[in-house]
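Entry 12.
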Amino acid sequence: MGCPEALGQDCEKDEKPYHRVYLRAYCIDRFEVTTGDYEACGKAGKCRPTPNGEECSLGRKDRRRHPINCINWDRAEAYCRWKGKRLPTEAEWEKAARGNDDRIYPWGNTPPTCEYAVFPEQKEETGCGKKRTWEVGSKPRGASPYGLMDMAGNVLEWVADWYNPLYYYKSPPQDPPGPVIGSLRILRGGDWRHGSPHTLRVFDRNPIIGAFWYYNWGFRCAQDPR
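Predicted 3D structure (tokens):
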């Protein structure tokens, strides 16, 4: 977990040290939670609506297969709880994205292009030229070693952990739960609007106030085996 030491100066301070983590078996969604999924939670009276910004997908019939966006941490966590699931820990998310090797991106070490991920491949070409999210699973060549889609690009994804930039120095080697308290949550995975080869790396960390939302933020859920 973390940034491989061989990358040297390309590592951020909060991505160090590179360390080994052991995780119990867990399940995690292959796809990001879609707008249609979230609408069902709203109809059940368990999820509050997301903001109605121009680039927000909720309520747009042509985006029911797009990842839900414009969502904060609490609403993401509430959806997972409704499904009998939970947000993945940061360690679980990274394991699902990279497997057990030193790869930089879910698909390997090949630099990202729109063949692999939904992001601004060229300046001003947000969303690979579509200027929005894509349907989940639209980039099968970008799948992770476990077959998960859109672990890089489309929307950044909330994880369960609080953020501490020094946590990796004291993280337990078995099932690290993240800090006990904090003021910031964490987003992972790069996105359609501001993503770059640097932010699409499987170990990139984005600390954000959990009450905030933005057009490029979404999530997927995890679950303990039954």
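Annotation: The chain has one domain: 27-226. DSSP finds three helices and six strands in the chain.
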